[in-house]
Write a structure and sequence with these properties.
Number of strands: 9
Helix content: 25-40%
Strand content: 15-25%
Strand order of the largest sheet: 2-3-4-1-5-9-8
Radius of gyration: 19 Å
Largest sheet: 7 strands, mixed
Order of helices and strands: EHEEEHEHEEEEHH
Mean pLDDT: 80
Distance between the termini: 57 Å
Length: about 220
């Protein structure tokens, strides 16, 4: 047996966020996985589709169970999810897309959803977390969604503190904190904040947990 290894030299972390499993009875799946003590993150019901998302205790990856077809522009994102193998999370969607393209991957443009307009080219104008997307498929036709996440939604983080899996992820969080702290200093009269390490720490933990950010 030959064991192949590859050395990562990517500039952008791409983390497995969601695995998608189609089921014939979503309500039955909901009862079963809730009974296992898994955390229910989402329960989305439309005219012809039903999607739930659970996260096992201590897991960094969630599972989506769903059925049906989602018609119309408002439900297009649910249909996109059901058509994929899963979701991959990045902190910078444009940088991640550029890196995949450089590696020869046929990756879609970055896009977001805008109500009745449906899918719109470019990242979310406000660069909100969970709102900017891209997609690509492997040679077998397995489709993956890329999603930009910079701050977790409330209730999506179990840990009491922030955890970063790489220096690149931590650096990106520090850059966002730096911009926010500059705005904080402007609001306080432009005076240098001697307690900036405490402010940075509070910002990083709050952002990671999806809690209100310090002002």
């Amino acid at each position: 047996m030959t064991i192949a290894t590859t050395r990562s030299n990517t500039a952008v972390d791409i983390k497995l966020e969601v695995v998608v499993i189609p089921v014939s009875d979503v309500d039955r799946a909901k009862l079963f996985y809730a009974g296992l003590g898994w955390r229910l993150d989402a329960d989305l019901i439309g005219d012809e589709f039903h999607i739930i998302q659970f996260t096992p205790p201590g897991s960094q990856c969630s599972v989506v169970f769903g059925s049906g077809v989602a018609p119309g522009p408002y439900a297009r994102i649910e249909l996109d999810i059901l058509e994929t193998a899963g979701e991959l999370v990045v902190s910078d969607i444009e940088a991640a897309r550029a890196e995949l393209a450089d590696r020869g991957v046929d990756v879609s443009e970055v896009y977001h959803y805008a109500g009745d307009k449906g899918r719109v080219s470019g990242p979310d104008p406000e660069r909100r977390s969970y709102a900017s997307w891209a997609s690509f498929s492997d040679p077998a036709g397995n489709k993956w969604l890329l999603q930009e996440v910079t701050a977790r939604a409330p209730g999506r983080v179990d840990a009491g503190g922030a955890t970063f899996v790489s220096s690149a992820e931590l650096a990106a969080a520090l850059r966002r904190a730096s911009v926010a702290h500059g705005e904080h200093e402007q609001r306080t009269g432009g005076q240098r904040d001697e307690n900036w390490p405490d402010w940075y720490a509070a910002y990083l933990v709050a952002e990671h947990a999806g809690q209100p950010l310090p002002q």
